[in-house]
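Researcher: I'd like a candidate sequence for this fold, 295 residues long. If you have to choose between options at a position, lean toward the conservative one.
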């Protein structure tokens, strides 16, 4: 009897020890899990993004250049967002005078230098250049092909009454065109010259209308190359030193986002941005649309 009772007690003790043994075996595993658990990464600090308003020309927009350089700048400076206002150079300078832009990228050097001299801009810095070309239909009724004298070409157009389509928008291209007419001693006015059409449009629209009208016009080379496949226009006159087309960057005095404007101006003349500008268009057109020339 006593032996049977002792045996029962031992069995019960053994049964009672099983949960304790199981718990003892699980504890190291739980501890191991706790030791290897990786805490969640802290949430990255959000960067406060501020807008930098860039007033520039339709030629830089229509050529596709901004699609290349703006993302590169914003990647380097994620605290800034570039908002492009693409208008003619004259209007871009007016926007700068009203302080409705922080930085300008324009191409009418004399007007740019006047803008800075009048205190509206801090400094003008060279960024890049290309050139203007006189375009027309391949049939070329004015027989301009192969010429390198822009003033002589415009004189021939006027004397022959060949249709010429002008941007007429106070852009850098329009300013250059007017200076060439002046050099030719001609004052083209739509009211008195039915061959001269002033349409008040950007470069892209002007090229399209010129192509459809089988007329003549003057364009910056970059925009023409970027649109060439869709146009019935060819380069007829080029190489005249008067067709040189430099672009400059200007930070607006007391700009609303002065730090962002200065960051963009410093970046666009940096080796990184200059390399991007120099490569832009080569793969597609076989030549760069703009030549970097920052000092």
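Model: Candidate sequence:
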């Amino acid at each position: 009897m006593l032996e049977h009772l002792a045996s029962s007690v031992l069995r019960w003790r053994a049964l009672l020890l099983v949960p304790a043994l199981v718990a003892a075996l699980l504890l190291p595993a739980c501890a191991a899990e706790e030791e290897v658990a990786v805490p969640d990464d802290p949430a990255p600090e959000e960067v406060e993004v501020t807008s930098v308003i860039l007033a520039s020309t339709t030629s830089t927009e229509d050529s596709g250049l901004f699609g290349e350089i703006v993302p590169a700048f914003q990647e380097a400076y994620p605290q800034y967002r570039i908002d492009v206002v693409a208008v003619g150079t004259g209007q871009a300078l007016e926007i700068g005078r009203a302080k409705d832009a922080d930085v300008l990228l324009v191409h009418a050097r004399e007007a740019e230098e006047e803008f800075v001299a009048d205190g509206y801009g801090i400094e003008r810095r060279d960024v890049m250049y290309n050139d203007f070309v006189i375009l027309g239909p391949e049939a070329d009724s004015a027989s301009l092909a192969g010429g390198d004298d822009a003033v002589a070409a415009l004189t021939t157009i006027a004397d022959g009454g060949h249709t010429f389509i002008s941007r007429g928008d106070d852009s850098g291209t329009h300013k250059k065109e007017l200076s060439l007419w002046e050099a030719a001693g001609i004052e083209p006015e739509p009211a008195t010259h039915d061959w001269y059409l002033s349409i008040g449009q950007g470069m892209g629209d002007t090229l399209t209308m010129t192509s459809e009208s089988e007329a003549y016009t003057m364009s910056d080379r970059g925009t023409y190359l970027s649109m060439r496949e869709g146009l019935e226009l060819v380069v007829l006159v080029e190489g005249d030193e008067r067709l040189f087309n430099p672009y400059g960057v200007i930070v607006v005095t007391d700009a609303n986002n002065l730090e962002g404007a200065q960051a963009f101006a410093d970046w666009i003349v940096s080796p990184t941005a200059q390399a991007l500008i120099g490569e832009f268009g080569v793969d597609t057109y076989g030549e760069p649309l703009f030549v970097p020339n920052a000092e």
